[in-house]
Structures
1.
Amino acid sequence: MSEALQQLLDILELEKIDETIYRGVTPQTTNKRVFGGQVFAQAMRAAQDTVPEDRMVHSQHGYFLRPGDPSVPILYQVDGIRDGGSFTTRRVVASQRGKAIFSTELSFQVVEPGLSHQADMPDCVGPEGLEDDNVRWAKLREALADKAQTGAIAHRPALRPIEMRTVNPVDLANPTVHPAEQFVWVKAAGSLSEKAQNPGLQRAILAYASDFSLMGTSLLPHAINFMNSKLQAASLDHCIWFHDEFKVDEWMLYCMDSPRSSHSRGLSRGSFFSRDGRLVASTIQEGLIRLRS
């Protein structure tokens, strides 16, 4: 297991300080904001702790309200809205210094059989032989070492708990107009221990990973990316649905597209396919993509 993956597992183990109140921390970083995927996943872990183990989270809908401060612990307050015969609902509010930074609702269900169909997995090359995205970013950082680097490069973490390999990557230094879709192979950066193989933790790790690259899909048709100093970007909301079981330390294809951007907002959608072609999770995110003069 890599150091980065162990660090992720550590921050997903929240401190329980009251019956429905949990405290989470952020790894040391030069970023001025907490990564949205971290808050999303930590909120899921807080809610999971209040739900019987036979009920699995199948959907989560969250809103990012304020930037999180990485130097301050995050408090997660869980509201037990409903415990039904087969579904359980939870609301979680994450706060710092007495103000909400994130709110989310989650639905859990007892596992049961039923009607089943799915979209086909796109046909594309596998992850073998593709360059790791972190290697591409490292090369870009080195190439621009003598220039004024944007925050997207200067603050990109050296430790990444999720390994990512993009199919047909774009030129980050010289972006051009590109169709609003991208395929990225993703998996945990290392093999999970037997203790970490429980389905609830697996889903939290995938929820964390789902925030990478998704919002950037809406920028591809406009020939800009997060290195553009005129771009003000932030996640506004994020949703995920789980359809089937998976192993997050095995390769999955993250297929993303953006059907629309308008009014300084971009809508992006994502689908996670296992190597055997099963659609295991879906995501949707709307992000702020404001160009400043």
2.
Amino acid sequence: MTRLEELIGIRSVTGEETEAVECCRRWLEDAGADEIDRWDVDMATLERDPDYPGREVERDVVPVVAAKLVGDRPGPTVTLTGHVDTVPPGNKWTSDPFTPRRDGDRLYGLGACDMKGGVVVAVESFAAIARRGRDFAGELQIVLVPGEEDGGTGTLAAIRRGWGGDLVIITEPTSRAGSSQIVIAHGGALTFTIEISGRSAHASIAPEGENALDHFWLIHQALKDIEQSINAQETVDLMLALGTPYATNVGKVTGGVWSASVMEHLRAEVRMGVALNETIAAAEERVIREVLAKANADPWLADHPPTVTRTGGAFGSAAISGTHPLVTTLADAAAEVTGQRPANIGVPYGCDMALWQRVGKSTPLVYGPGDIRQAHAPDEWVSLEQVEVVTEVLIRACLDLLQPVMESG
């Protein structure tokens, strides 16, 4: 059984990652890491952190494992990182999501693409460089975390522990048309809960009540207006190429108590985009301000204002220069291995890149096996050939990056 098959066989839905983290710890011990750090962070401690990203799943602790190889001379710190948690499998799978299944080049299983394939790439790259000795400059780190799918608590825990450094490669899936690309920019996302009050009445005299659903449509239009406005203001070509980089989605709506009663209350859960040029705090303030301004123009909602509350996990946005040495070195390595230079791309979804950049003060990018279209999907799969190719690229790129800093003059 390969490492990827072993990891897929371990259930690690967000909030249940300890066994997967322990598996990775054993792999890093076998790899001969110079230092291994395995710890649990109390959730209450993270909740007090000013950069706490929120979460979707209740948990008591956050389990993390990290390790390092120390070169024989000074140089940069390069970090490989990924998350071991997965979303729940849903009920549309045609086989057991926790039993890895091969079909030609494809390996099926929950998390195969997002992102156990990437975790194994990071481990295999780390182990291969460990076997070569310590004839390099600086440090190679690996940080494997839980809690990415609901905000990034694991990465925040690692940063606060002192892990990370100059350059960070996140091995999330970045494949397009069968070849991994380099993500240098991504949007963010926030979840809001909006509650609207109506006034109940018997359905036979419904006009004497105030149906919360009727008032929701005005709020829904406000959300669409916000979406249009934030996308119209974008100027970065990589994000403009996505069409709608900052999408709005009303994912869940509940309301009412009885079919013969006018709906007196409605609750909606909404995902809103975070632009490249704004912080989570600025995006939160923008959405709340604009929704309430729209509501204030309606007589009923002006007297009974909706509540707009940020809930769940928060994903910040991030971007780095396409000419940064981290990007060009990785692209050079990919060209040498594959014969094709990867493109620099932007993506509309959030990941841990923002935390590494905004909180960890590192320069991060995303490059890994798998296509995002397979992520969170039934019968998720990853190409085994691509896992091998990306591993070879990362070994070469890390060795190229782990060079001494040359002093001028």
3.
Amino acid sequence: MSGEESAVSGLDYREWQRGRLMVGTRAFRVATKPGVFAHGRDDPAAAMLAEAVAAARATVVVSMPCGNGLVGVVAAASGATDVWMADRQALGVEASRRSVAMQTAHGAAATTVGEATPSIAGSSPRVTVCLGHGASALPSGLVADVVALRVVPEKMAMLQLIVDALALLRPGGVCYLAGGNHEGAKAAAKLLERVFGSAKLMNQHSSHRLVMAVRPVQPPPLPSDLASPFLDAARFNEVHVTLAGRPFTVFTRPGVFSWEHLDEASEVLAGLINVAPGESVLDIGCGAGALGAVAALQSVTGEVVMVDADSEAVRCAKRTLHAAGIHNARAIVSDVASALHDDARYGTFDVVVANPPFHTGKHTDLNVPRQFMREAFEALRVGGRLLLVANRTLPYEAELVSLFGAYRAVHDGPRFKVLQAIKTTTRHAPSP
């Protein structure tokens, strides 16, 4: 596999780029941009999955999570007639849809569907890209010949994908699983073996591994120590917290940031949110909704909009708002705040709060938090303010000066800092 074509420096975050990847002797184009998994670097695990799927020449193939869509487009080019791709991340869905559209020589057409209404459309091979985690994004009754799983670091989210793969496969169907050792591929392979009854190491490359398991006619019962209510996509974890002097129940799911407890950074920021009644608030990267809920209760009548690229996080945030009886807030799946750009319902905001992610998978990626700050500036009215929490070692100050002209630290703790910046002009400050 050759690496992606190097990203062009200076491109706008929102601008999609083309990567060229080799699978065997064939070249495939994939769509990529900052925030997409494996952007700007090789992904040996995806290459191994794609090569295995190409060799399998199966009829019905499922790829979860689909990332930039490489596995799905290779399946479509290798004889599969029905290809299903699912990803909980909005960027993965959009990247996969664009990647399929690039493969015009293979005659594939992609339909993008939401988590609630999956359907197939397009010419043969038929490709459907679904928003959601695992089989919950796919139609009930779907039976696959091959399921390709890209390892995710969170154990329970990975286990759910494996259990879903077993349920999706026909007897004799094959599950391929691949990932980096630093991502937990060894542990995931052990989970695959325990759920399926047996598994076989097929390939290793650059500290990545490919493992295969065959779905037996009578699958073994799930080991009791792996049983969990959260394998049911309809079940939520309940985290009971007190924020800004008020008790909350935050509803979470495996794989959502800090899903088993409220993270310290959000707790620090929640104590510093000071929204006046009637002020409008944008929570970028809302996660399970704790910060947006605090802001909505303080605002009382002001509009609060919460956005996150993770569809599971948005499901959780909606549940958190509902449980708190909050009616002046809504949660939306969005790549940063892009979903608001062309929607006439949304104007500018008085306050933006953010706890930006700085990892894509296991890799540090500061492009995403920088875009959080840029879109916060764009979303604020003149006089509006940004409150941003970050690990104290992260170098966000220069970006804030470049955009807002100045900032001040309203909290400087041993682990986290909260930076406030006020928008004083409609144009960002010149770069220092």
